[in-house]
Amino acid sequence: MNTMFHVEHFCKIIKMRILFVILGTISLGLGIAGIFLPLLPTTPFLLLTAWCYAKSSSRLHKWLLEHKIFGQYIQDYTQNRSIPLRAKIVSLTVLWGTILYSVFFIVDGRLWLQVVLFVIAVGVTVHLLRLKTRKRNRNSVVVKRTVSYEKLLFFV
Question: Which of 26, 79, 95, 121 shows the smallest number of beta carbons within 10 Å?
Fold first, then answer.
């Protein structure tokens, strides 16, 4: 009877690990899509991916944290809650450009949808402006990796 309990418990753990890998991978896909879709938040999805992978697979978690783009981004965000000034400027410019274009040309005439888009844009703007601005330090290791980080400025 005791052996049966261990087998059932082991199967349950395996199922949960598989579920977390699947959820983490879906979350990663949504986070990547958020690079190109301004209304889809990238940061929460990448943080969820890191959490899911940490719960399920040390190999996937290590891969994510050591990834040349995602790893530095996740570390900067979780450890320092900061982003570079250039990332803020570009992100806000792209966000508002896309939102205003959508409001005036895509969803013209649907007031409720225009209000929703505007509220989302204001929320994202407030969030970005509340984050600390990381200063550039030419001697630090972080700056050496900033080049690959800044290629994906929409992650913010």
Answer: 79
Query: Which residue ranges make up each domain of the chain?
Result: 1-66, 82-156
Distance of CA 90 to the CA centre of its chain: 16
User: In the predicted model, what is the mean pLDDT of residues 23-29?
Assistant: 93
Asked if residue 70 lies in contact with residue 79, where contact means CB atoms within 8 angstroms, the answer is: no
Residues shown for the chain: 156
Residue 114 has pLDDT above 70, yes or no: yes
Distance CA 79, CA 110 (A): 41
153 vs 34, 86, 105, 116, 118, CA distance in Å? 11, 8, 25, 24, 21
Residue 79's pLDDT is what? 80
- Residue 154 has what pLDDT? 40
Residue type, 138: R
Closest CA to 43 of 58, 32, 54: 32
